[in-house]
Amino acid sequence: MNDFLAMSGYGKYLWPAFGLGFGVVVLIYVSARSSLSSAMRDARRRLEINRPEQIR
Amino acid sequence: MATWTWFHRFGSPPWVYGFAARWAPWFGAGAALCMIIALYGGLVLAPPDYQQKDAFRIVYIHAPSATLSLAVYSTMAVAAAVGLIWRMKVAHAAAAACAPIGAWFTVATLGTGMLWGKPMWGAYWVWDPRLTSELVLLFLYLGYMGLRAGIEDPQKADKASAVLAIVGAVNVPIIKYSVNWWNSLHQPATNKILGDPDMDWSMVWPLLLMLLAFFLYFGWVLLIRLRAELLRRERNASWIREVLA
Questions:
Q1: Which residues of A touch B62 (CB under 8 A)?
Q2: How far is A27 from chain B (nearest CA, A)?
Q3: A38 by DSSP, 3-state: which?
Q4: Is the pLDDT of residue A54 over 60?
Q5: CA distance A42 to chain B (A)
Q6: What is the predicted pLDDT for the residue at B146?
Q7: What residues make up the domain containing A43?
Q8: Is the torsion defined by CA of B74, B80, B84, B90 positive or negative?
Q9: What is the rounded distance in angstroms from the CA atom of residue B239 to the CA atom of residue B223?
Q10: Does B93 touch chain A (CB under 8 A)?
Q11: pLDDT confidence of residue B194
Q12: For B61, which of A17, A28, A56 is closest by C-beta distance?
């Protein structure tokens, strides 16, 4: 296990690189979900405010 | 002629919204499955490189990020052009949805490249043509998003940002071929579309699988962002009430 983590001495570069790469992958997803949730919330609020006849 | 009529459906916001909602989870599941297998293949099964030893494994995160940073920009530029030429709202929404995804992939490319560059070149950063043109790509993404945010009228924002996206596309082949056109510290492409790869197959398959995973992942997050964009743009349309019911 220690050998695997050491990655022949390059672990200090390799693991941060994977951490950054997959950190970005998670961040893109979280930001996309949060953008969709916020757009849905706004749309629902708008629908509650506007009566049906005011909507095109 | 009839075979092309399906394409017209992509111009309909409610149809695209429904399509995105139905297909996004499948893209997500495919991406997760491919990523797990590719990670195991790249970190455990692939043998160390004879020169770079285990440091070469950074390729499994760096190369897919770099490919996606270019692929997302190309998608954004094509979508922007379609939006500009055919005045398709969905295309402008797709272009806008691409920008933050591509910007983050570019950040990952630059960051993982720096972490690979230090042990291989002895420096985190050099003003090499590949690195510099990739940095310009990040500025293009930021410029695109900044321009959109800075213009209040959505139609004007669509047009202005589309022009920037199309003009900026000239940087895509510069990034791709910079290692061939100029003297570069960055290694040339290891895997070619035509011809055998320079790497052994035991190293190549996890890379190809990770690339597929990243493309599926891009499809997933793009469809989620596209739904958000369409909800914001079409907020006064009657179909919004139906989909949110």
A1: 17, 21
A2: 9
A3: helix
A4: no
A5: 8
A6: 97
A7: 18-56
A8: positive
A9: 18
A10: no
A11: 62
A12: A17
**Number of CB atoms found within 10 A of residue B202's CB:** 11
Contact call for B119 and A10, based on CB within 8 A: yes
Q: What is the ipTM of this complex?
A: 0.90
**How much of chain A, in percent, has pLDDT values that exceed 90?**
61
Asked, for residue A10, whether it belongs to a domain, the answer is no
Structure confidence at residue B93 (pLDDT):
97
**Whether the Cβ atoms of residue B123 and residue B108 lie closer than 8 Å to each other:** no
pLDDT confidence of residue A40 = 93
Alpha helices, DSSP H, located in B87-196:
89-121, 129-150, 154-168, 171-181
Cβ atoms of B3 and B228 closer than 8 Å: no
Please report residues of B whose CB lies closer than 8 A to that of A20: 61, 108, 111-112, 115
Say which residues have a Cβ less than 8 Å from residue A46's Cβ, sequence separation at least 6. B235
**Which DSSP symbol is given to B45?**
I
Length of chain B: 245
Nearest chain A residue to B54 by CA: give it.
Answer: A7
Got the DSSP string for B212-228? HHHHHHHHHHHHHHHHH
Q: Would A2 be classed as within a structural domain?
A: no
Domains held by chain A: number: 1
Which chain B residues contact residue A3 at CB under 8 A? Answer: none
pLDDT score, position B7: 74
pLDDT score of A55 more than 60: no
- pTM of the predicted structure, to 2 decimals: 0.92
Tell me whether residue A39 is in a domain. yes
Bridge partners of B49, per DSSP, are: B53
Mark the ranges of chain B whose per-residue pLDDT is less than 70. Answer: 1-4, 190-195
- Domain contains A48: yes
What are the chain B neighbours of A27 within 8 Å (beta carbons)? 104
- CA B40, B46, B52, B53 dihedral sign is positive
Compare CB distances from A32 to B116, B118, B221 and report the shortest one's residue. Answer: B221
